[in-house]
Amino acid sequence: MELKINNVTRYYDDKLILDHINAHIEDKEAIAIIGPSGAGKSTLLRLLSKIEEPDDGSICVNNNHLSEIDPEEYYKSIGFVFQAHTLFPHLTVLRNITLVLEQVHKHSKEKASEIAMTLLKHFELEDHMHKRASQLSGGQSQRVSIVRSLAISPEVLFLDEPTSALDPVLTQEVLNTILKLREENTDFVIVTHEIAFAKKAADYIIYMQDGKIVEMGDVKILEHPQTEELKSYLSNVFMW
Fold it and tell me: What is the pLDDT of residues 176-195, one digit of tens each?
């Protein structure tokens, strides 16, 4: 995966959220964006996925220049997992996955079912495939959301704090699923507060604070931070 972020700025109303950020990252498979609340992490992820547009600057994801590509075409090539799952509660787990494959990606019903059932089995969710999404636990719902995003074979999967609304047991379920992505060399970018997980799953770290990228580098920066800001953040995270 390659990300090029050039002088990107983003405002909400009159508040500066991202302040002229720059990064060029290449040949990485798993990037974790960390930092305190309000740092601009989720905003950056939404810009990378073209859910939002920057007010200034440019972004390129792999060979996709986001200012030039049609949003609908780009969305067909990426996956996005939100903080809270976005499953259709009245549909079955299986139908939640096949619906997108049939209607957006124009697969036949048979092919869509084959893709969905293969993935559900692979991620140990096949016992839930005929349940309505409303019958699932929070952790199961997020795992199905990840499977649904994977079903389209995305170039990159973006995950925005997928465990933020879950208790510790359900959090571990979801993190184990994401670790499986890492083992299978799926390219993904994740915003997370789970630093121990980031150490295990990511091969590159972006640390943000106050709308800026303060420090970034290979995952070893979590063991040997170079900036006082990252040192302070990590000491606070692990103080208990």
Answer: 999 999 989 999 999 999 99
C-alpha dist (Å) from residue 82 to 45, 79, 163, 164, 222: 10, 10, 9, 10, 25
Q: Could you give the CA distance from residue 94 to residue 147 in angstroms, rounded to a whole number?
A: 10
10 Å CB burial of residue 222 (0-12, 13-18, 19+) is: buried
Q: What one-character-per-residue DSSP string does the chain give?
A: -EEEEEEEEEEETTEEEEEEEEEEEES-SEEEEE-STTSSHHHHHHHHTTSS--SEEEEEETTEETTTS-HHHHHTTEEEE-SS----TTSBHHHHHHHHHHHTT---HHHHHHHHHHHHHHTT-GGGTTSBGGGS-HHHHHHHHHHHHHTT--SEEEEE-TTTTS-HHHHHHHHHHHHHHHHTT--EEEE-S-HHHHHHH-SEEEEEETTEEEEEEEGGGGTS--SHHHHHHHHHHT--
Retrieve residue 153's tokens.
């074979």
pLDDT tens by residue, 15-73: 999 999 999 999 999 999 999 999 999 999 999 999 999 999 999 999 999 999 999 99
